[in-house]
Write a structure and sequence with these properties.
The complex is a heterodimer. By secondary structure, chain A is α/β, with parallel strands linked by helices. Helix content of chain A is about 30%, strand content about 25%. In chain A, helix 10 crosses helix 11. By secondary structure, chain B is of the alpha/beta class. In chain B, the strands form 6 sheets. In chain B, strands 1, 2, 3, 4, 5, 14, 15 and 16 form an 8-stranded mixed sheet that branches. Chain B has an 8-stranded mixed sheet with strand order 6-7-8-9-10-11-12-13. An 8-stranded antiparallel barrel of chain B has the order 17-18-19-20-21-22-23-24. In chain B, helix 3 crosses helix 4 and helix 15 runs parallel beside helix 18. Classes of the chains: A alpha/beta, B alpha/beta.
């Protein structure tokens, strides 16, 4: 019950001091969240649950109808009756913390110059104090895969949690993957505001050869017993060949995806994912058979072509699910960082177009954890996992009912306000609004 | 110098072909010839539809003397026996282009003949193509082989391009080939090589044409105090010439036509071959068209994934393009044909043939290439072979339209200009050959000019090739096989009128042996057809692309029963009510209302019905440039001129429940262009989309975009600070006020318009389209939607408006509207904003999702807009965020995408709420309209069903079926055609505010 006492105090302090909320302190308490509906993240739901937090982890999730517990054992009890509890949502392929203002180049730290940059690390530029981060958490997004863009190989990605003093504290897993931009077969001519025709990329084959050449060298390097001349690029890629890192391949067209799948098989890259995958629905057999998940670009996007079914971007997740292909979500596109807070609603739109709601939750929680090799650590409301979760008054994937009342990251209850609420307060005061 | 040509040319033309040489010095002995020719035994098409069989064409001194039977042939005549060949009057191309290979059609800016005339380098009507005439022999031959003796050439550069020269393709000095030195004035919407920033958009080009035409009138009627302006003088001087306007695309034909009507001119409009897609506009305004024959080649569709890059619209056009001339003919639209963009004669005749296969009669085609173009450039002596006409004609082996048609000779001004060396003697047939000791049979078949030869003897068939030059023949014959070749090389002559050949041959041993061939059989007629003898068109939809209508929806009477009705009016949300729609209006609302049995019912149970959504700020459906960024003040440009009814985003947004949108100019400059308010009537044309009784609106903009802080090449266009922005507005409005008052007393808007209208030649004051629009603002006839972000700039404009006496209707974006909501409310200014956008530029760092709620709370009329083609598909979700973040009630939030924007557009008397008598613009939702799971199932505009989700499923299937059907047809046809490289049509770009178009045309 202590937290209820705490909150008004927190508010006042915040007003007086910072514009951005500060990270919550380490949790040393035993916390009980009772009587809420627990969406485990693996597709199952416990209607009336006890969720027990000890330190950084979830220690137990019990059915309150069956289990007996002693409330005396807990430092804090949160009443969650009528509320829904979810593992924290994860956004994939994100530039959160790598940019602050889209139009100002000086705030950009997501695209290094050069073609092959596997050694460039998204995590080192991650600004844990970005003003955008608190605006994202309040809708349930608590973790982000921070990934660079650009070049042929953009760099390495890392998973962060969104309540930290610095990137070191934020990191859940560093350099868990490498991002490769597969050579596109076609190019949109002109510039974005006045597009010309679609032109065949005459150098696509040549580009593909350079990708093969680079990765073949990297693989050979990884097999060397003794390295005489160290190569930073290839050092950064070792994990791709022993299965400790995943290769994320950005590709949209069906034939590009097919090429990428064949590439992964030929080079015996243990773990891969397709990022974007606008036409992944056409090659689901290959993706399923090779156990390659898809990181979908934002659901709220326009159909790629004039003829494309107008609801295809909305239906894509359910189509992949029906075909047995695993997927997770990103918000890639214009204003992608700012709109991270809309990730739940983008997924909610996919539900309107046929995606099973619990599968949707899975794709926001368990699947990202699996993809990043953290399924034993985080991503679900199961014992032993990080206590990274939130409570919502209603369905968080529906704008009407997304109302996050509490959010925890690794057992720490985080603040759910941002500088935007401070400005709201300020101008409510100006107008003497209630 | 041009002036000299003018002195010489009338002489040239008046005095005729031969006499023209009198002024030329002669090197040597004079060589004047009788120049009389008689073409006998010909099938002469004197004029389209007028044919003489077995006639004689008599030509003297470059002109037709007589054409008919029983013509007396003078002694001086060179008689040419045509052996039943055909003679046609030569074609005339009003849209030809002459330029040596390697020299493109770019204007030569360094030309010393370019005059200092108009301020805008894209306007050079004084330019005369005749001053820069150059023709290579190679291109002349291509024209002649294609049937054209006359090419109307102009410099294809700029908006007002100057005059064209009608030039003949005959041999001899160029001076003798100029038929009309200034045949037509040429205009376009494409600024070409001009380095001047303005116009950067199609709407800017339209405004520039209009302003220039107004200026020319004013110039003509104000002979007093003025500067010499060569461009305006030239326009006035060329008023009597036909005006040929290159529209660029089919949607721009009505745009050009509107200008013609505004100024009482008539344009001959050059189209792009898709004119059948604007048939309804053509039928109402009836311009004369120049139609290209460059029908698209089949695409390479062999890989189904790659074929996805080609749109159904392009596939459909491939199928229907050859029908374009036919359909124009059938509809009674005047047109001529052009060879434009077809690179050689072979391609031209293929396309010509295709137009005929589609059903165009050879006579109509001939008319469109001869008499019609001649009439359009006022050339009564061209186009036919009647006595007195210039003797321009071509000779062919077969009639026009026959698949074996071959152009054999072309005569220009009574002189042979091209000889295809067509052999009148047909050698096709079967022959018995004796070659040394061998006896073999020879079969000559296939096309007459290049026949195919096959030899047969006891051992079987043998390969042979035949070459012919007049009566001489050479044949290479391999009597062995490919492993053991036995070549016989025959040379000889044709004798006995083709009945026999004979000559000598070298045998494989190198010895001479005699050979003879005796014709045993004439060729079999007709040759087997390899091509279909007619083409089948596909359906034409509205618009003619994926998801188009077969027939446009009609207004229906219907009732939506037992539904939840979000009226967005004082009646609030009604449960379990019936909604009766009739004549496009809402007739009745209520529970258990008495409705006649025969009225169709839509079960609304479990559904939610809202007004059609209104988007205050949209940039969809705009052709070729959303910004006119060439100047800081461009109030003269109008989005209404460039509405693109073929933008797929119209359909996509209907699927999100949007029925009305304000299409805004972008935010590249402080005073942008005039907006268009449209209903998303998918399948209708641009004019039909406009809301007829909507008031005038204009886009203003402040902040980073107008000071070009994010532009890659911001250059030095004033302003580059918010301080400069203020001064730009102040200056513009002060100039507008002076203009408003003119030289005399203050006039009422109506009387001023009357005085300065295009019909009023006496107007003293120069009509300034830019200031006109600003005066309309001052006179409360035009409302302002101002792009704005931060409080300081909003405050500035409010002060300026107060002091200069104009009103701001809406601050759009207004992301810091919450900081000045009280000031906005005091002035009755609305706020049209985003629910939650921020962080995309510096000026939106203080944007908060509570903005709408605070403004609403302070009494500001608040709208949530899209500004974005994607967000326009789910405005209901954006409205829901106002509930989530600011705690505004659901009904009030829904009003932010319905009746509130309707108010800001001055249309709330018609749209935005569901009340009896209002437009039946309705959306039926599957669920609570603010819910993320809600899907728009049906969208009506004025009682017409424009979007239906169940129909959309069928359309998705239809898209695939049509693609499959056309792929099959294409693969079939591609067999005997060269395949076309994968090339896609221009995609409709998606604009939003930050779009700054530097160029819209190459």
């Amino acid at each position: 019950m202590k937290c209820f006492v705490l909150i008004p105090f927190v508010f006042l302090t915040a007003l007086a001091t910072a514009q951005v909320p500060w990270p919550a302190p380490e949790n040393h308490q035993k916390i009980l969240i009772r009587y809420g509906t627990a969406h485990i993240g693996n597709g199952t739901v416990v209607q009336n649950a006890y969720i027990i937090i000890e330190g950084r982890e979830i220690s137990q999730v019990l059915d309150a109808n069956k289990a007996r517990i002693n409330t005396q054992d807990f430092d804090t009890i949160i009443e969650a009756e009528g509320k829904h509890i979810y593992p924290g949502f994860t956004v994939m392929d994100s530039r959160l913390g790598l940019t602050e203002i889209d139009a100002i180049r000086a705030t950009h730290d997501f695209e290094e110059t050069g073609k092959f940059n596997p050694n460039v690390r998204g995590i080192t530029a991650y600004n844990a104090e970005s003003k955008i981060i608190p605006t994202v958490r309040m809708n349930g997004v608590l973790m982000a895969q921070i990934a660079p863009v650009g070049g042929r190989v953009s760099g390495s990605s890392s998973l962060v949690q969104l309540d930290a003093w610095n990137w070191e504290d934020a990191a859940v897993k560093t350099d868990e993957g490498i991002f490769l931009n597969w050579p596109a077969h076609y190019r949109q001519e002109g510039w974005w505001a006045m597009m010309g025709g679609i032109k065949k990329e005459e150098k696509a084959l040549e580009e593909t050869d350079t990708v093969y050449a680079f990765f073949e060298q990297a693989k050979a390097y990884a097999q060397m017993n003794e390295v005489t001349v160290r190569n930073l690029r290839f050092e950064a890629m070792r994990g791709l060949f022993d299965g400790s890192q995943r290769l994320y391949i950005r590709a949209d067209r069906a034939r590009e995806i097919l090429q990428a799948v064949m590439f992964v098989k030929k080079l015996d890259i243990k773990k891969a994912a397709i990022v974007g995958g606008a036409e992944s629905y056409l090659v689901t057999n290959e993706l399923r058979e090779n156990n390659i998940p898809v990181i979908l670009h934002r659901i709220h996007s326009l159909p790629k072509r004039e003829d494309t079914p107008i609801d295809l971007p909305y239906r894509l997740p359910s189509m992949l699910h029906e075909a047995g292909v695993k997927f997770a979500f990103s918000t890639v596109g214009d204003m992608e960082v700012m709109t991270t807070r809309n990730l739940p609603f983008q997924v909610g739109t996919a539900i309107a177009y046929g995606l099973d709601p619990e599968v949707a939750i899975q794709a926001l929680t368990q699947v990202p954890a699996e993809i990043m090799g953290l399924s034993e650590t985080t991503g679900t409301l199961e014992p032993g996992r990080h206590a990274t979760f939130f409570l919502s008054e209603g369905d968080p994937l529906d704008i009407r009912s997304n109302e996050v009342t509490h959010a925890f990251i690794m057992g720490r209850e985080i603040h759910l306000w941002s500088h935007q609420e401070r400005l709201y307060e300020k101008y409510r005061a100006k107008y003497q609004m209630k | 110098m041009r002036i000299n040509l003018f002195l010489v040319l009338p002489l040239v033309i008046c005095s005729g072909f031969c006499l023209a040489q009198q002024t030329f010095p002669v090197n040597g002995v004079h060589d004047e010839r009788p120049d009389v020719f008689a073409f006998t035994n010909a099938r002469i098409t004197v004029a389209p539809g007028e044919t003489i069989h077995n006639g004689t064409l008599l030509v003297r001194d470059g002109k037709v003397v007589a054409a008919g039977q029983n013509i007396a042939i003078p002694q001086a005549a060179v008689v040419k026996d045509m052996h039943g060949q055909y003679i046609y009057p030569s074609f005339i191309d009003l849209y030809g282009f002459l330029g040596a290979p390697g020299k493109n059609d770019k204007h030569d800016k360094s030309s010393p003949l370019m005059k200092p005339s108009h301020w805008n380098p894209a306007i050079h009507p004084e330019h005369a193509a005749v001053d820069h005439l150059e023709i290579s022999d190679k291109e002349r031959e291509e024209w002649l082989k294609s049937g054209f003796a006359l090419v109307n050439h102009h410099h294809r550069d700029g908006i007002m391009r100057g005059t064209s020269v009608l030039v003949g393709m005959g041999k001899g000095p160029l001076q003798e080939q100029v038929f009309i030195p200034e045949a037509a004035l040429h205009c376009s919407f494409s600024k070409g090589s001009s380095k001047e920033r303005y116009p950067s958009s199609l709407m800017g080009a339209i405004a520039l044409v209009r302003q220039t035409l107004y200026d020319a009138r004013w110039y003509a009627n104000n002979t007093g105090a003025k500067d010499e302006n060569l461009a305006l003088e030239a326009i006035n001087e060329h008023q009597k010439l036909p005006i040929i306007f290159e529209a660029g695309d089919h949607l721009s034909i009505p745009r050009a036509q509107a200008i013609a009507e505004e100024f009482g001119l008539s344009f001959i409009i050059k189209g792009n071959g898709k004119e059948y897609r604007v048939m309804r506009e053509l039928l109402s305004s009836r311009p004369t068209l120049i139609l290209p024959l460059d029908f698209p080649q089949p695409y390479d569709v062999k890989d189904p994934y790659e074929a996805m890059e080609i749109s159904l619209s392009d596939l459909k056009h491939w199928e229907n393009a050859p029908f374009n001339p036919l359909w124009m003919e059938q509809a009674g639209v005047d047109f001529v044909l052009t060879k434009d963009t077809l690179k050689n004669a072979e391609v031209f005749w293929k396309k010509f043939q295709q137009a005929l296969l589609a059903g165009l009669s050879a006579q109509d085609a001939l008319e469109a290439l001869t008499v019609r173009p001649a009439a359009l450039v006022n050339a009564p002596q061209l186009g036919t072979l009647k006595p007195g006409q210039w003797a321009n004609f071509f000779i062919s082996s077969e009639s026009l339209g026959n698949p074996d048609f071959t152009l054999t000779e072309h005569w220009v001004k009574g002189q042979q200009a091209y000889n295809g060396h067509f052999e009148t003697l047909d050698i096709r047939g079967n022959y018995d050959v004796v070659l040394g000791g061998h006896a073999l049979k020879l079969k000559v078949s296939g096309k007459r000019p290049k026949p195919h030869v096959e030899a047969t003897d006891l051992h079987g068939k043998h390969k042979a090739t035949l070459k012919r030059q007049g009566e001489l023949l050479s044949i290479a014959l391999n009597l062995g096989d490919s492993l053991h070749p036995q070549f016989y090389l025959l040379s000889g002559k044709i004798s006995l009128k083709g009945a026999a050949w004979d000559g000598n041959a070298k045998n494989p041993e190198g010895q001479w042996v005699p050979w003879t061939a005796i014709k045993t059989r004439e060729p079999l007629e007709p040759e087997k057809q390899t091509r279909p003898d007619s083409l089948e068109p596909g359906p034409v939809w509205f618009p003619d692309m994926a998801y188009g209508f077969d027939t446009l929806p009609t207004s229906k009477t219907f009732v939506i029963t037992n539904t939840t009705l979000w009226t967005c009016a004082d009646t609030g949300t009604l449960e379990r009510v019936d909604l009766w729609v009739e004549n496009g209006k809402i007739k009745r609302i209520g529970q258990d209302i008495l409705i006649p049995e025969n009225i169709p019912r839509i079960n609304g149970s479990g559904k939610h019905v809202t007004p059609g959504l209104v988007d205050e700020h949209s940039h969809i459906a705009i052709s070729r440039g959303v910004n006119e960024s060439g100047q800081a003040v461009t109030s003269e440009v109008r989005i209404g001129d460039v509405i693109n009814p073929e933008d797929i985003n119209i359909y996509r947004q209907l699927a999100g429940g949007v029925t009305t949108a304000q299409l805004l100019h972008g935010s590249a400059n402080p005073i942008g262009g005039q907006s268009a308010i449209v209903k998303l009537r998918w399948g209708s044309n641009a004019e039909e989309m406009k809301v007829k009784d909507a008031g005038g609106f204009i886009k203003f903009a402040l902040g980073e975009n107008v000071k070009r802080g994010n532009s890659r090449n911001h250059g030095n266009r004033f302003p580059i600070t918010r301080m400069g922005v203020e001064q730009t507005f102040a200056d513009a409005f002060i100039r507008a006020k002076e203009y408003q008052h003119g030289n005399g007393p203050v006039l009422t808007p109506a009387s001023r318009r009357k005085k300065e209208g295009p019909g009023n030649e006496a107007a003293r004051q120069r009509k300034d389209l830019e200031l006109e629009a600003l005066v309309e603002i001052l006179e409360d006839e035009r409302d302002i939607t101002c792009h704005s972000y931060v409080q300081s700039e909003m405050n500035m404009l409010m002060h300026l408006a107060d002091s200069l006496g104009f009103r701001i209707r809406t601050f759009t974006h207004a992301l810091e509207g919450y900081k000045v909501a009280d000031k906005m409310q005091a002035r009755g200014i609305g706020g049209s904003t985003f629910s939650d956008w921020w962080a995309y530029k510096f000026e939106v760092k203080d944007a908060i999702p509570y903005n709408a709620a605070i403004m609403h709370n302070q009494g500001v009329t608040v709208a949530i807009n899209s500004d974005d083609a994607e967000m326009g598909r789910r405005l209901n979700q954006e409205a829901a965020k106002v509930v989530k973040y600011g705690g505004v009630s659901e009904e009030e939030s829904l009003k932010m995408i319905t009746v509130n924007p309707a108010k800001l557009l001055g249309l709330d008397h018609r749209i935005g709420s569901i009340e009896v008598g209002k437009d039946a613009d309705l959306v039926i939702w599957s669920d609570h309209p603010l819910g993320t799971h809600a899907i728009a199932e049906k969208t009506f505009i004025e009682g017409r069903l424009y979007y239906d989700r169940s129909r959309d499923k069928l359309l998705q299937e239809r898209v695939q079926q049509e693609r499959g059907r056309i792929f099959t047809k294409m693969l079939q046809e591609a067999k005997d055609r060269q395949k076309q490289k994968l090339k896609k049509k221009q995609e409709t770009p998606h604009y939003h505010c930050d779009t700054i178009l530097e160029e819209y045309m190459p």
